[in-house]
Each structure stands twice: as structure tokens, then as C-alpha cells.
Amino acid sequence: MTLNSIGLDTKKTKALADDLNQLLANFQLYYQNLRGIHWNIKGRAFFDLHVKFEELYTDANLKVDEIAERILTLGATPLHTFEDYTKAAKVPVGKNISKDEKAVELIVESLSELLKIERSILEAAGEANDEGTNSMMSDFITEQEKTVWMMKAWLGETV
């Protein structure tokens, strides 16, 4: 086993960086979806949702940077083109969404996909003894589970 300069197995960190790049691609699509629904939301819930969507896209933008920096920390190169993002993404693309329920449903669906990827990365990070990635995924998961709960509550649904 070969260790890198931060003490992690190089083969395992390569695999983790690949997984993190998939997460990065999905976060970039999620971010773009949030920008779109922020700009295009209409109706009686406009004022509340417009502010909430801005809060969410600001947070997503920060997470994109954190993910990219973690990929670099592991010795890899983050994806950085829209072509790469669309090839790797599983998050649904939300186009021309202006209705409140459709917008919130898109967020729930997107976060559900992100959570699947993050849980997979969390497991792999544990196996690689990569506490940095593990901690990041734990924090992301905790926040996103709460957001899913809140969005489902707004929709009048349970988790």
C-alpha cells in the first residue's frame, strides 16, 4: 500500500476523488436548478420561496467549493466544465419551473439523489480511513436531511 503525503492510501483516495467529482457534478446541477427556480418562481409563495431558494443556492455554492477543494486535497483535479457535469449528473434538470410545488419537489428529488451519493462516499471514506471526507459528508447529510424534512413539511408530506 502506498500512502500519500496526508497519510491515505493512494488507490483509495483516487476512488474517493472520482466519487467526489460525481458529487461535484451533481451539486453544480442542483445549484443551477436553485438559481433557476429562484429567478422564475411565481405565485402567492413568491416572497418566502424567493428568499429560501437564494439561501439554498448560496449554501450549494459554498459546498461546491468545499467539494472541489477536497478533491484537490486528495491529489486529484475537480471537474470544471458543464459538459463534464451533465455527463456525470444524476440530479434531475429543472427547466422553466415557476410553480411553487414543482420547485419544492425538484429540491426534494435533487437532495434525495445527493444524499445517495454522499452516503456512498461516507462509507468509502470510512473504509479509506479518510476522516476529512467522512466529516464533510456527515455534515452535508445532516443539513440536507433537515432540508428534505422542511421541504416535505411545506408540501404537506412526511419524510
UniProtKB/TrEMBL annotation:
Gene3D superfamilies per UniProt: 1.20.1260.10
Residue ranges of the TM segments: none
Ferritin/DPS domain span: 19-157
Protein family per UniProt: Belongs to the Dps family.
Protein name: Dps family protein
Organism name: Winogradskyella pulchriflava
Native organism taxonomy: Bacteria, Pseudomonadati, Bacteroidota, Flavobacteriia, Flavobacteriales
